[in-house]
From TrEMBL, chain A:
Organism from which the protein derives: Compostibacillus humi
Lineage of origin: Bacteria, Bacillati, Bacillota, Bacilli, Bacillales
GO MF: 2 iron, 2 sulfur cluster binding; metal ion binding; monooxygenase activity; oxidoreductase activity, acting on paired donors, with incorporation or reduction of molecular oxygen
Keyword Hydrolase among UniProt keywords: no
Domain Rieske, residue spans: 88-161
Name of the featured protein: Menaquinol:cytochrome c reductase iron-sulfur subunit
InterPro entries: Rieske_2Fe-2S, Rieske_2Fe-2S_sf, Rieske_Fe-S_prot, TAT_signal
Subunit structure and binding partners: The main subunits of the menaquinol:cytochrome c complex are a Rieske-type iron-sulfur protein (QcrA), a cytochrome b (QcrB) and a cytochrome c (QcrC).
Family: Belongs to the Rieske iron-sulfur protein family.
From TrEMBL, chain B:
Cross-referenced Pfam families: DUF2487
Name used for this protein in its record: DUF2487 family protein
Alphabetical list of InterPro entries matching this protein: DUF2487 (IPR019615)
Organism of provenance: Compostibacillus humi
Entry superkingdom: Bacteria
Amino acid sequence: MSDKKHQVTRRQFLNYTLTGVGGFMAAGLLVSPIRMAIDPVLKESSSGDLVNVGISVDEITDVPQRVDWTVEQVDGWYKSEPSRSAWVYKDENGEIVALSPICTHLGCVVSWEGSEEHPNRFYCPCHDGLYEKDGTNVPGTPPLTPLAVYEQEVRDGILFLGNPIDRKGA
Amino acid sequence: MKWNKSDMSTYIKAKEYIDTVIVPVIPFQTSKDEELIKDAHAQEVMTFFVHHLEKELSGRIMLAPSYVYLKSSELDEEIKRINAWVDDIQSQPFQHIFFITYDPKWKKYEKEMKGNLLWLPALQSEEIDVTEPRGIIREQVNQVVELIRSFW
């Protein structure tokens, strides 16, 4: 039994193994908190992407028309496909405008010329809210802010819409 | 709006604007195999239907939780229970109460009901897709929206 054969003593061997195993355990414990801490960075935004709403630029006229589409929304393991709608038209400069149909008062769905008494305006059937064609709320009716405008982009002649963006009151 | 936490906090602040309650009326049973699929599907379609109805008019209507009853139970008894719902609803400033059902048995009890009964012919078609409001369901939603608006 020469010392040269025993370059690692029993004590050293135990130290190494314990440090190793302990290290693994500590790492195991740390992984979840670290994953949690940086989680928002890893998460891809599922609703922020622009979605093809199934209408080409040529089909859009100066009269607002309603388009409906669905977005895939992932909330944990729960997947849903909420439907969304927009009123889409070209303004006098030929720019595409996509307005959210959700009344800013209490959330009913407004429609273009929804009331015969109010031509050229968006009308909310719930409490007679009115909006101009550009989505501005008409003073004296219940809504206090204009209709939200969708983020939009045209790709290869097809309209893509993102999230509705709220606007300040008139 | 729906009967949930966030909508009810809006409701309390805006009571004067919400004057209509919608109550889906849904029969339940598990005892008859031959009707199980049909009844469960009707329940699904109804839930989907009122959900989209609520979306269109959410600022003025409150969608109550479904009134569920045993399919075999006597409507003489159920009518008392459903009217007790009405009494409770009317302690708030609601003007219109609509019961929506696919069960034709209620039609006979309409007069005793303290609310408006909307009986809709059941949509039994296999094609009804309860993930997106298309075609026939969308049509039905629009027509019921018109009907409710005519009461306002």
